[in-house]
Each structure stands twice: as structure tokens, then as C-alpha cells.
Amino acid sequence: QVQLVESGGGLVQAGGSLRLSCATSGRTFSSYCMGWFRQAPGKERELVAGITGGGSTNYADSLKGRFTISRDNAKNTIYLQMNSLKPEDTAVYYCYLDVFGAGRYWGQGTQVTVSS
User: Residue 87 — φ and ψ, nearest 5°?
Assistant: First the structure.
């Protein structure tokens, strides 16, 4: 059973920064694609960023330059560094992990609130 544990959310003022973490255990972490989605109130869940086992990354176009995804295979953890945060970044951020042939696993979500 894959478990994802997110941390790092919270309340921050506009222009500030936060770093989210998503840790997992069991399995061969370095081979999995992982990433982050977010869901704001009343909106659909949207992709924020993804990272492959080899470290290739992709981002939502609107977030390029402000958000950075990374991974530490030794710690079985991925990170999302979020800079220059805006009130519209307020959402629940969900970590995901893709297992080939088995589907996508999700974390429980962590709330990020950006005040103006």
C-alpha cells in the first residue's frame, strides 16, 4: 500500500514563500512519477507540477517561474517550492504518485492560504 504524507502548508502573506513536502515509503521511490495538483474552492483540481523518476519536470504554464518541483530520492520525498505567492494560489494542494500498471495514488492534501 502506497502512502503519501504531505506537509508544509499554512497561511502566508501575498509575496511570501512556502515549501511543501510529500513523503512516501515502501517501493522503489526513484522510479515513480510524482507531482502536485491543487483545488481551490468551487474549482476543478488542476495540475501544478510533475516530476519523473529521472528528474524531468513539467509545470502549469501559469506557474512557471514561481513554483519549483524537486525530489530527493534518498529521502523518498518530493518538494514544491512556491515563491511570490498570490491570493489566487489559495487551494488545497495534493501530492500524487503514479505506479505503472496500478494507477495514481493521492495524499490527503495540505491547505495553502495566501492573504492579500
Answer: -55, -30
